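Ticket 4471: requesting a sanity check on a complex prediction with FE3-S4 cluster. Repro inputs:
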Amino acid sequence: MYLTKEEERMLSGEEGEVVQRSMRLLVRLGEIYGADRMIPIRSVQIAGVSYKSIGDPGTEYLEDIAKKGARVRVTSFLNPAGMDLADWRILGFDETFAKNQMRIIDAFREMGVIISATCTPYLVGNLPRFREHIAWSESSAVCFANSVIGARTNREGGPSALAAAICGRTPNYGLHIDENRAPGVMISVEAELSDIADYGALGYHLGKIVKNRVPYIRGVQNPGTDELKALGGAMAASGGVGLYHMEGCTPEAQIFSSRIKELEVIHVSQEELKEVYAKLNTGTEPDIVILGCPHASLGEIAEVAKELDGKKLKKPLWVCTSRIIKEASDRMGFTEKIENAGGRVVADTCMVVAPIEDLGYRTTGVNSGKAAAYLPGFCKQKVVFQGLKGLIRRVI
Ligand code: F3S
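Returned structure tokens:
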């Protein structure tokens, strides 16, 4: 693998132990996947932030490298943490958990990572351009960046994303290379998608059937950004999908249009989406409804506020989002409407990376295919998976 003089210096330890270890990890990764060289990146998004996920070993590792002088070289955003970093007490999080979570946040801050605590960095100040090379690690953000924006990133793990941030580079393989972005299967959607949950159901189904191929999707009518983030999030959760193309919608679909004639075609029917709903619904009555997976946009929060206006909730309802979007929601009066009904706009965390099982919840209502896929395993939850209006009807 070719390394520039600067990269050789990093590898030889001239820039310190942490840079050397990080470069070693990147070179090893590159060798495994047959990369020819390193490529400079413009931004990083780092997962593995919740104390629930990384525990004491991960926390101590981050503190150790921060103390040894680890610093990021490019704009680096953080994935959601295990709790709302401001309102954790009101939401019922445990003091010890909070203390440990703040150690992780402090270590990242010391390294120069922006404490964005969100899986939708593209909505709040980290928007890559078309064809820009980046190293992101949260799978829904990876799928959105590659597919909807046309930026280039592999699905990085937490450690490789952090190493890329420290070195400002990533090995050139996988989805950084044109040829690997070509579609490998055609998906013909013959089902009506009328709610954002339908996009989650479709994404879940596609993740299961396309395996390691890049899907080229046709038949979806004019989806918005929120629908596409729901689709990609679910696809990345149920399968390894890091990129999809959508006819007439995503930027690279046109580039590959001459190649689609040879592709195997898989048809997706209404009946199959119904089966996804049946499979993902493992519970009946939610103890709590949690929306915002991937993190809610301001538009999605506005819709929840409108639905809850003048209503009273009998059970808790959270809308998870980033701190920046929450501040906009406060300013617009959406948060007040949601709180008046008994709900909450929760920032910095989500239903999967927060220890909701320790807060006493056993059945969670969601409108996200990704959350529905992860909640049973990550949080020991039964799931009620349906559209926003139906979920609200269950808790008023
Ligand atoms: Fe984001 Fe959490 Fe869903 S990190 S994509 S809200 S599982």
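Notes from triage: The chain has 14 helices and 14 strands. Leaving this open until the requester confirms.
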